[in-house]
Write a structure and sequence with these properties.
The protein has about 280 residues and is of the alpha/beta class. It is globular. Pathway: Cofactor biosynthesis; thiamine diphosphate biosynthesis.
Protein backbone atom coordinates (compact mmCIF):
# COMPACT_ATOMS: atom_id res chain seq x y z
CA UNK A 1 0.00 0.00 0.00
CA UNK A 2 1.46 3.33 -1.07
CA UNK A 3 1.77 6.23 1.33
CA UNK A 4 -0.49 9.29 0.85
CA UNK A 5 0.93 11.80 -1.60
CA UNK A 6 2.24 15.16 -0.47
CA UNK A 7 -0.60 17.55 0.28
CA UNK A 8 -1.17 20.49 -2.07
CA UNK A 9 -0.76 24.07 -0.84
CA UNK A 10 -3.43 25.12 1.65
CA UNK A 11 -5.41 28.36 1.87
CA UNK A 12 -8.13 29.55 4.24
CA UNK A 13 -11.14 31.71 3.44
CA UNK A 14 -12.95 33.56 6.21
CA UNK A 15 -16.22 34.78 4.72
CA UNK A 16 -19.98 34.41 4.44
CA UNK A 17 -21.89 31.60 2.78
CA UNK A 18 -23.88 32.36 -0.40
CA UNK A 19 -26.85 30.01 -0.77
CA UNK A 20 -26.95 30.90 -4.47
CA UNK A 21 -23.43 29.54 -4.96
CA UNK A 22 -22.04 32.51 -6.87
CA UNK A 23 -19.99 34.38 -4.28
CA UNK A 24 -18.61 34.10 -0.75
CA UNK A 25 -17.33 30.81 0.62
CA UNK A 26 -18.67 28.86 -2.35
CA UNK A 27 -16.82 30.99 -4.91
CA UNK A 28 -13.66 31.01 -2.82
CA UNK A 29 -13.48 27.23 -2.49
CA UNK A 30 -14.09 26.71 -6.21
CA UNK A 31 -11.33 29.21 -6.93
CA UNK A 32 -8.92 27.41 -4.63
CA UNK A 33 -9.79 24.13 -6.35
CA UNK A 34 -9.17 25.68 -9.76
CA UNK A 35 -5.63 26.59 -8.64
CA UNK A 36 -4.93 23.15 -7.20
CA UNK A 37 -5.10 24.44 -3.62
CA UNK A 38 -6.73 22.66 -0.69
CA UNK A 39 -9.34 25.05 0.67
CA UNK A 40 -10.28 25.57 4.32
CA UNK A 41 -13.14 27.76 5.49
CA UNK A 42 -14.36 29.68 8.51
CA UNK A 43 -17.92 30.88 7.96
CA UNK A 44 -18.88 34.28 9.38
CA UNK A 45 -22.47 34.47 8.15
CA UNK A 46 -25.17 32.45 6.46
CA UNK A 47 -27.06 34.35 3.78
CA UNK A 48 -30.31 33.47 2.06
CA UNK A 49 -29.74 34.83 -1.42
CA UNK A 50 -30.08 34.09 -5.10
CA UNK A 51 -29.41 35.90 -8.36
CA UNK A 52 -32.21 38.37 -7.59
CA UNK A 53 -31.05 39.54 -4.20
CA UNK A 54 -30.30 38.88 -0.55
CA UNK A 55 -33.36 37.85 1.45
CA UNK A 56 -31.85 37.24 4.89
CA UNK A 57 -28.52 37.32 6.75
CA UNK A 58 -27.68 35.44 9.93
CA UNK A 59 -24.33 36.38 11.43
CA UNK A 60 -22.53 33.70 13.40
CA UNK A 61 -21.49 34.34 17.01
CA UNK A 62 -17.93 35.59 17.44
CA UNK A 63 -17.08 32.49 19.49
CA UNK A 64 -18.09 30.20 16.62
CA UNK A 65 -15.98 32.14 14.13
CA UNK A 66 -13.02 32.16 16.51
CA UNK A 67 -13.33 28.41 17.07
CA UNK A 68 -13.34 27.66 13.33
CA UNK A 69 -10.20 29.72 12.75
CA UNK A 70 -8.45 28.18 15.76
CA UNK A 71 -9.33 24.64 14.67
CA UNK A 72 -7.88 24.93 11.17
CA UNK A 73 -4.79 26.96 12.10
CA UNK A 74 -3.83 24.45 14.78
CA UNK A 75 -3.92 21.53 12.36
CA UNK A 76 -3.12 22.69 8.83
CA UNK A 77 0.00 24.41 7.42
CA UNK A 78 -1.96 27.34 6.01
CA UNK A 79 0.04 29.31 3.43
CA UNK A 80 -2.44 32.12 2.70
CA UNK A 81 -5.64 33.53 4.16
CA UNK A 82 -8.39 35.52 2.46
CA UNK A 83 -11.10 37.41 4.33
CA UNK A 84 -14.39 38.44 2.76
CA UNK A 85 -17.71 39.26 4.40
CA UNK A 86 -17.19 39.92 8.11
CA UNK A 87 -20.47 41.71 8.73
CA UNK A 88 -19.85 43.60 11.97
CA UNK A 89 -17.13 45.46 13.85
CA UNK A 90 -17.17 42.72 16.48
CA UNK A 91 -16.45 39.99 13.92
CA UNK A 92 -13.72 42.13 12.30
CA UNK A 93 -12.09 42.50 15.72
CA UNK A 94 -12.47 38.76 16.38
CA UNK A 95 -10.83 37.83 13.08
CA UNK A 96 -8.08 40.40 13.50
CA UNK A 97 -7.22 39.09 16.96
CA UNK A 98 -7.26 35.48 15.75
CA UNK A 99 -4.84 36.25 12.91
CA UNK A 100 -2.50 38.52 14.86
CA UNK A 101 -0.62 35.52 16.23
CA UNK A 102 0.15 34.20 12.71
CA UNK A 103 1.94 37.15 11.06
CA UNK A 104 3.91 34.86 8.73
CA UNK A 105 0.79 33.78 6.80
CA UNK A 106 -0.03 35.94 3.76
CA UNK A 107 -3.33 37.78 4.30
CA UNK A 108 -5.57 39.19 1.56
CA UNK A 109 -8.40 41.37 2.87
CA UNK A 110 -11.42 41.88 0.63
CA UNK A 111 -13.49 44.56 2.43
CA UNK A 112 -16.95 43.28 1.49
CA UNK A 113 -19.61 45.86 2.33
CA UNK A 114 -22.35 45.51 -0.33
CA UNK A 115 -23.53 42.61 -2.52
CA UNK A 116 -23.57 42.83 -6.32
CA UNK A 117 -27.36 43.02 -6.13
CA UNK A 118 -27.09 46.10 -3.89
CA UNK A 119 -27.90 44.56 -0.50
CA UNK A 120 -25.89 45.75 2.49
CA UNK A 121 -23.62 43.02 3.87
CA UNK A 122 -22.32 44.99 6.84
CA UNK A 123 -23.74 46.53 9.99
CA UNK A 124 -22.57 49.33 12.26
CA UNK A 125 -19.04 50.72 12.00
CA UNK A 126 -17.47 47.88 10.05
CA UNK A 127 -15.27 50.17 7.92
CA UNK A 128 -13.62 51.70 10.98
CA UNK A 129 -13.12 48.23 12.50
CA UNK A 130 -11.47 46.92 9.32
CA UNK A 131 -9.05 49.85 9.40
CA UNK A 132 -8.31 49.31 13.07
CA UNK A 133 -8.06 45.53 13.29
CA UNK A 134 -7.09 44.16 9.86
CA UNK A 135 -5.38 46.71 7.63
CA UNK A 136 -2.10 46.69 9.54
CA UNK A 137 -2.05 42.89 9.20
CA UNK A 138 -2.99 42.84 5.51
CA UNK A 139 -0.43 41.95 2.87
CA UNK A 140 -3.01 43.07 0.32
CA UNK A 141 -6.27 45.01 0.53
CA UNK A 142 -8.61 44.59 -2.49
CA UNK A 143 -11.37 47.24 -2.41
CA UNK A 144 -13.47 48.35 -5.35
CA UNK A 145 -14.07 52.09 -5.73
CA UNK A 146 -17.20 52.30 -3.50
CA UNK A 147 -15.46 50.29 -0.79
CA UNK A 148 -12.38 52.51 -0.94
CA UNK A 149 -14.62 55.57 -0.74
CA UNK A 150 -16.29 54.14 2.37
CA UNK A 151 -12.97 53.29 4.02
CA UNK A 152 -11.49 56.73 3.31
CA UNK A 153 -14.64 58.89 3.40
CA UNK A 154 -13.71 60.53 0.08
CA UNK A 155 -14.90 60.40 -3.52
CA UNK A 156 -12.92 58.67 -6.27
CA UNK A 157 -13.67 59.89 -9.78
CA UNK A 158 -10.53 59.28 -11.85
CA UNK A 159 -7.30 57.33 -12.15
CA UNK A 160 -5.54 60.20 -10.42
CA UNK A 161 -7.98 59.86 -7.52
CA UNK A 162 -7.27 56.12 -7.47
CA UNK A 163 -3.55 56.75 -7.06
CA UNK A 164 -4.18 59.09 -4.14
CA UNK A 165 -6.69 56.71 -2.55
CA UNK A 166 -4.35 53.72 -2.82
CA UNK A 167 -1.59 55.71 -1.13
CA UNK A 168 -4.00 56.74 1.64
CA UNK A 169 -5.06 53.14 2.21
CA UNK A 170 -1.43 52.04 2.43
CA UNK A 171 -0.86 54.82 4.94
CA UNK A 172 -3.57 53.21 7.11
CA UNK A 173 -1.42 50.08 7.33
CA UNK A 174 -2.01 47.79 4.35
CA UNK A 175 1.30 46.68 2.81
CA UNK A 176 -0.23 46.74 -0.67
CA UNK A 177 -3.55 47.76 -2.23
CA UNK A 178 -5.30 46.48 -5.33
CA UNK A 179 -7.87 49.19 -6.08
CA UNK A 180 -10.36 47.87 -8.63
CA UNK A 181 -11.65 50.46 -11.07
CA UNK A 182 -14.66 48.67 -12.52
CA UNK A 183 -17.12 51.20 -11.07
CA UNK A 184 -15.56 54.09 -12.97
CA UNK A 185 -16.90 54.83 -16.49
CA UNK A 186 -15.18 53.84 -19.72
CA UNK A 187 -14.81 50.98 -22.15
CA UNK A 188 -11.61 49.92 -20.39
CA UNK A 189 -11.30 48.89 -16.74
CA UNK A 190 -8.21 50.08 -14.91
CA UNK A 191 -7.11 48.24 -11.76
CA UNK A 192 -4.27 49.67 -9.68
CA UNK A 193 -1.77 47.66 -7.64
CA UNK A 194 0.12 49.93 -5.25
CA UNK A 195 2.92 48.46 -3.14
CA UNK A 196 6.41 49.29 -1.92
CA UNK A 197 7.58 48.38 -5.44
CA UNK A 198 5.51 51.25 -6.86
CA UNK A 199 2.29 51.49 -8.84
CA UNK A 200 1.23 49.11 -11.61
CA UNK A 201 -1.91 49.42 -13.74
CA UNK A 202 -3.77 46.42 -15.13
CA UNK A 203 -6.01 47.44 -18.02
CA UNK A 204 -8.57 45.19 -19.67
CA UNK A 205 -11.74 45.58 -21.78
CA UNK A 206 -14.99 46.02 -19.89
CA UNK A 207 -17.26 42.97 -20.14
CA UNK A 208 -20.88 44.05 -20.55
CA UNK A 209 -22.37 41.72 -17.92
CA UNK A 210 -23.02 42.05 -14.19
CA UNK A 211 -20.87 39.35 -12.67
CA UNK A 212 -21.68 37.92 -9.24
CA UNK A 213 -18.74 37.11 -6.98
CA UNK A 214 -16.00 38.73 -9.06
CA UNK A 215 -14.43 40.45 -6.05
CA UNK A 216 -14.53 37.29 -3.93
CA UNK A 217 -13.02 35.29 -6.77
CA UNK A 218 -10.23 37.79 -7.44
CA UNK A 219 -9.10 37.94 -3.81
CA UNK A 220 -9.33 34.15 -3.47
CA UNK A 221 -7.31 33.67 -6.66
CA UNK A 222 -4.56 35.96 -5.34
CA UNK A 223 -4.53 34.02 -2.07
CA UNK A 224 -4.31 30.75 -4.02
CA UNK A 225 -1.42 32.05 -6.12
CA UNK A 226 0.48 33.18 -3.02
CA UNK A 227 -0.21 29.84 -1.35
CA UNK A 228 1.44 28.22 -4.37
CA UNK A 229 4.53 30.36 -3.86
CA UNK A 230 3.96 33.25 -6.27
CA UNK A 231 5.05 36.77 -5.39
CA UNK A 232 2.26 39.32 -4.90
CA UNK A 233 2.51 40.99 -8.31
CA UNK A 234 2.68 37.66 -10.17
CA UNK A 235 -0.25 36.28 -8.16
CA UNK A 236 -2.27 39.44 -8.85
CA UNK A 237 -1.65 39.31 -12.60
CA UNK A 238 -2.61 35.63 -12.74
CA UNK A 239 -5.73 36.27 -10.66
CA UNK A 240 -6.93 39.10 -12.89
CA UNK A 241 -6.47 36.87 -15.94
CA UNK A 242 -8.32 34.04 -14.16
CA UNK A 243 -11.31 36.27 -13.38
CA UNK A 244 -11.37 37.47 -17.00
CA UNK A 245 -11.53 33.87 -18.24
CA UNK A 246 -14.16 32.92 -15.67
CA UNK A 247 -16.25 35.95 -16.60
CA UNK A 248 -15.96 35.17 -20.30
CA UNK A 249 -17.40 31.72 -19.52
CA UNK A 250 -20.04 33.05 -17.12
CA UNK A 251 -23.60 31.75 -17.19
CA UNK A 252 -26.99 32.79 -15.80
CA UNK A 253 -28.28 29.95 -13.57
CA UNK A 254 -31.19 31.82 -12.00
CA UNK A 255 -33.86 34.32 -12.97
CA UNK A 256 -31.94 37.43 -11.87
CA UNK A 257 -29.79 39.72 -13.97
CA UNK A 258 -26.44 38.66 -12.52
CA UNK A 259 -24.23 35.96 -14.03
CA UNK A 260 -22.09 33.45 -12.17
CA UNK A 261 -18.44 32.89 -12.99
CA UNK A 262 -17.28 29.52 -14.30
CA UNK A 263 -14.37 28.95 -11.93
CA UNK A 264 -13.53 25.41 -12.95
CA UNK A 265 -13.89 26.16 -16.65
CA UNK A 266 -11.35 28.95 -16.26
CA UNK A 267 -8.81 26.89 -14.37
CA UNK A 268 -5.21 26.97 -15.42
CA UNK A 269 -3.50 25.16 -12.58
CA UNK A 270 -0.02 26.57 -11.94
CA UNK A 271 2.95 24.37 -11.19
CA UNK A 272 2.75 23.60 -7.48
CA UNK A 273 5.94 23.97 -5.47
CA UNK A 274 6.49 20.91 -3.33
CA UNK A 275 8.73 20.88 -0.26
Amino acid sequence: MSLPRTAPPIALTIAGSDSGGGAGIQADLRTFAAFGVHGLSAITAVTAQNTRGVEAIELLPAAAVRAQIKAVLEDFPVAAIKTGMLGTANLARTVGNALATRPHIALIVDPVLVATTGAALSRGRLSAALCRHLLARADLLTPNVPEAEELLNRRIRSQSDMLEAAAALRALGARAVLLKGGHLPGTQVHDLLASKAGARWFTHPRVDVEGHGTGCTLAAAIAAGMACGSELEVATEAAIAFVARALALAYRPGQGRVVVLDHLGARQVPEIRRP
